[in-house]
Structure formats: C-alpha cells, structure tokens
Amino acid sequence: MAIVTAQEVAAYAGIGNKHEDNLSVAIDDAQGELEDFCNRQFEDATRTEYHDSDGTDTFIYVLNPPVNSVTSLTMDAQDTATAVAAANYVTYEKSGKVQLFNDETVFSAGPQATLIVYRGGWTAANMPNALKFAVKQYAIVVFDRREPGVVQFSADGVNLKYDGESIPMPIQARLFNGGYVVQST
C-alpha cells in the first residue's frame, strides 16, 4: 500500500484528479524505487531476518527500522535455537539497534546465526513527512516519464530535473540526510 494517495500527489502537483489511475501506478512505482534505493521498506509489517555474527558482536541492526516490537530473538538459529529472554536485550526503536546485556554477552558465531522476528517500519500515523514528500516528488517525475529525455518539474519552490537514469539528487539527499537509507552489509 502506498504511503501517499493519488489525490495528495495531484494536489501537490496542481494537476487535478483526472489522472488518478496513472498517478496511482506512478506512486507505486516511485515508492518501490525509493524503497530499493533505501534498501528497506517504509511501511510497518512483521519482518523475519537472519543476521551473521563472528561471535564478538554485542548488537545487530535490523533492516527495517523503526522497531515497533520484537516478537522473538533467537541465537544459534541454524543449530540449537536458543531463545533470548526480552530482559537480556534492549531495542533502540529509531535506529533499529538490538543490543545484548545481562546474561547474554555476544551473538552466536556463524552465518545466519541470529534470527529476529519483529514489527518494523512506520505506520500511517507516524510516517515521516519527509518520506511522504520524497514519494510525492518522485511520483510526479515517474508520472512525467512517459516520454524519454529530460523532465523538469517545479512545485512549492522545489525544482527537480530528471534525466531518466536515476532518482533526482534533491530526493536522494532528502533520503540520506533524513537517515532513511539503510547501508547494505
């Protein structure tokens, strides 16, 4: 489900609602491309991730912060599968960092040795405005991409120039500066 509506994008771009179906497709495409660029999904959902460790790690970072809740944390996930009690780790919601303490000292060594099941991403109520704005801007670029070549777009004092090859730099900067891009490991 898209984080912005066709009506919001149409109002932002000042183009009216007559292109609602095409805008909906452009929004889905734009959000998908931005999520790929950011190496993460934006919307809240249950996530299951395996993490590697060299046996010295005291923390991991989930791939889709913020962490809304942790269902389970398991070490030796590929072998003896030992559950980690919630009292033995702390979760930093915004960054997605999960750190061991108390009786647990390090994550088990090995590929995919740690399994975490959690709810991560933003709900409609707490979706950052900067992400919504980036999707609106890029949806207009995608919508206008119907013909090859350079596309230029201006709204709310922001000028975007798109060469058809990459996400415009102002949108990339907004995503990097807002901390929405997850560095791939």
Query: What is the overall shape?
Result: elongated
Number of DSSP-assigned strands: 9
Low-confidence parts, pLDDT < 50 over ≥5 residues? none
Domain module tally: 2
Secondary-structure content class: alpha+beta
Give the CA-CA distance, first to last residue: 27 Å
* Mean pLDDT across residues: 87
Going across the biggest sheet, name each strand in turn: 1-7-3-4
How large a portion of the residues is in β-strands, by DSSP E? 25-35%
Alpha-carbon Rg, integer: 20 Å
Helices, by number, come to 4
Detailed description of the structure:
- By secondary structure, the protein is α+β, with helices and mostly antiparallel strands.
- The protein folds into 2 domains: 6-41 and 124-177, no CATH class; 45-120, no CATH class.
- The protein has helices spanning 6-13, 20-38, 129-143, 169-177, and strands at residues 45-53, 59-61, 67-75, 82-83, 89-92, 97-100, 110-120, 151-155, 158-162.
- Strands 1-7-3-4 form a 4-stranded antiparallel β-sheet, with no helix packed on it. A 3-stranded antiparallel β-sheet has the order 2-6-5, with no helix packed on it. Strands 8-9 form a two-stranded antiparallel ribbon.
- A hairpin with a 4-residue loop joins strand 5 (89-92) and strand 6 (97-100).
- It is elongated, with a radius of gyration of 20 Å.
